[in-house]
Amino acid sequence: MKLAVLNIEGNDTGKKAELNKEVFGIEPNDHAIYLDVKQYMANNRQGTHKAKERGEVVASTRKIKKQKGTGTARAGAISNPLFRGGGRTFGPRPRDYNNKLNKKLKKLARKSALTYKALDKSIIVLEDFQLNAPKTSDFEKISLNLKVNDKKSLFVFNEANKNIYLSSRNLKKVKVITASDISTYDIMNASTLVLSESSIEVINKVLGN
User: Fold this and answer.
1) β-strands 153-157, 12-18 pairing
2) 96-148: per-residue pLDDT in tens?
3) One domain for residues 92 and 108
4) Helix axes 103-119, 30-43, angle to 10 degrees
5) Hey, which residues does 2 pair with through a beta bridge?
6) Residue 10 pLDDT > 90
7) Can you give the residue range of the structural domain that contains 77?
8) In angstroms, rounded to a whole number, what is the distance separating the alpha carbons of residues 132 and 151?
9) Count of domains forming the chain
10) How far lies 58's CA from each of 54, 62, 81, in Å?
């Protein structure tokens, strides 16, 4: 598959970028995408949730009423989970949500996600460029020229660039990453994928067979 390469003005440069069929043209595997996105979201959970149980609540241990003769159930302390302010029964405890996936499955998931973007014609190839200084308005203008300013867009570059990152971080619908860090979640979460010309080679190298 060949796509036209655009410049930062949004104009066709006359060049074509070749998308590897082994990466952008496979038979998509929905279950692989589901598992990879599920792992990504689970691994981002802090797992610091905690509720106090009966033995952890600071409260009086005085027996609040006599054992018999009240016509109601016996109660030994105000920390009983049945009372307001008492401990919680089987409350959440801190835990680790991280889980592992096979490397081949994760690679299949990313290739499936990229294939979906290619099928939806949601990929734009952008000519490599540099920003001399971090300036949000400059990056916003580029998004406007590419007609992705009103969509969730993922910009992928071959390597980290401080000026580009700083220029984009205040834009709500824009995310900038390097090709080696691309994830299934990022791809599926974006409406449009903007690949720099040199990032395609990195993606093909990382995900190609």
Assistant:
1) unpaired
2) 999 999 999 999 999 999 999 999 999 999 999 988 899 999 999 999 999 99
3) no
4) 110
5) 18
6) no
7) 56-96
8) 26
9) 2
10) 9, 12, 13
